[in-house]
Predict the structure.
Amino acid sequence: MAGKRACAKEGAGECLRVGVCGLLCERCPKLKRTECSGCAPNPVCHLPACAGDRGVEICFDCPDFPCELAYRFFRKDFLDFLKSDEYVG
C-alpha cells in the first residue's frame, strides 16, 4: 500500500498513516465514508499509481507537483495557494 507512516503524539504514541495525497488516513472523511481506497489501486483515484511511477511516497514530494492529476483531486484554490509565494504568518 502506498503512503507512509508518520508518528504523532496521538494517544499512546500511535503512528498514523499519511496517504499519497498527504492527508492522515485515519482522519480522512472520504476514507471513513468508504469513498477512498486508502491508497490501494482503484479506478477512481490515480494518485497512488502516479506516485509509484514517479518514485515518490507523497504527491508533495514530486517535482511536478501540482500537476493536472492533483488538480483533479485537490481544490484549485488550495493548489494555487501552494504554488504561490504568498506568505502566511
Summary: The chain has a mean pLDDT of 81. Strands lie at 4-10, 14-18.
